Amino acid sequence: MRPPDHILMEYCRGIAAARGDLMMCSLQDLFYQEKKAFSYGEVRRAWARVLADLSAPAQKRLQLYVHIPFCRRRCAYCMYQSDVLRDAAQLEESLGYLSSCFDYFSGTFAGREFQELYIGGGTPSILEERHLKTLLKRLQDRFCLASRARFTFEMKPADVTPGKARMLKAFGCNRVSLGVQTFNPRLLRAVNRTDQTQATVKRAIACLTRAGIEDVNCDLLLGLLGDTPDSLLAGVRKLLDMEPTTVILYYMQTQAQVRYFDAMASGDFAPFVASLEQAAAPDLRRLAESRGYRLERNAYAYCLDRAPRTVGTDPLRKVELGFGKYSNSSLNGSMEYQNRVKNFVFGDQDRPFAGTVYSLNDRIARFALNGYCALGHIPLSRIEAEFGVRGESYYRGSLRLLEKAGRIRREEGRVFLLAEDKRGLIADMLFLLDYGRLTAVRNFRKPDKLL
Predict the structure, then answer these.
(1) Could you give the domains of the chain?
(2) Greater confidence, 440 or 35?
(3) Residue burial 430-451, b: 16+ Cβ < 10 Å; e: rest
């Protein structure tokens, strides 16, 4: 039996108080479920079923992701899964494995156009030119990109060469994302990024621009231990002087980054990030506008943008096919899985994928949550189009109570959360999603599942 509403609301607030600093905006952790192992054949059949039922709008969300799981060294703060590259043979083996996966799945996607290709890692730019050419040619031969697809390739500034830049352009790459993170030499040493200088970044941006890459993006991090508002803004200013197309300043907010903070300092991670942001945000907006950049903010980052973006996919629903060790795939919200292959021999492992099949209730809740994180509001009006369920009716009880308490504002099918602190946002989101419906409620009896 569902508990009384006022008790449920207090329960949600208690969860937020207990988990607020750690979770911050990463409410996706609420949807943890035990993973099930899948074989290559089971995954291919699941894709065939999903593709057969895709609506016309959903077909426009088809994405392709390739994960290069190697780095020369691990950065202290990194939240992404990768291995330190042992030797060139290991890289060759991984490319051979990718090629076999392309062959196995390509028939299922025959006639389908991908709206986005993203090659990430790890460190994709660890590939030499001959490796890069082989990978891109195999992708080109097996899969079809839409004519205006966004094609992103991640690079370390030190890895950018004229040859790699020209090759990326020749294969249709229109966006390169450079991991800059900071210009502070002391912080670079502390996080194990000793091969990066201001001159290296400037040279990389210029090289990519000369090659004709339309969108050169640079990533920075908000929350590196030892950073200050002045040094953070100085880093942004230096980047804007180099005139990249976009600069994205990401919050450090994930569990891996919290562990980085805990390992290097005592104190609370969330207040440190919040105070840094509060001090820097007004000057950040003025700085962006003075250089001709638009400034936008969502739950993950500040984005400084000076040009129309290349066509991408809908941020609310992923239909993403991932390749490579540690890659993630999402089948339109109904299933997600990760490649956990132990070696790079195709078929050597019976069930190399680990994933989850989601209930309708969880799918709707995840859609609402992703909407808030990406758009700053919950798009109730889209729930009916996506799931055949009226959002206003589905969440009627929690909407009524939150509105009565002055916690939300409704506006033309959108719901805005009014809490000013992250714990309040978490509590109100939990209550709005009618937490009693979610199968993930059991996870709060197992706190280790969120850590």
Answers:
(1) 5-32+359-450 (1.10.10.920), 37-305 (3.80.30.20)
(2) 35
(3) bbbbbbebbebeebbeeeeebe
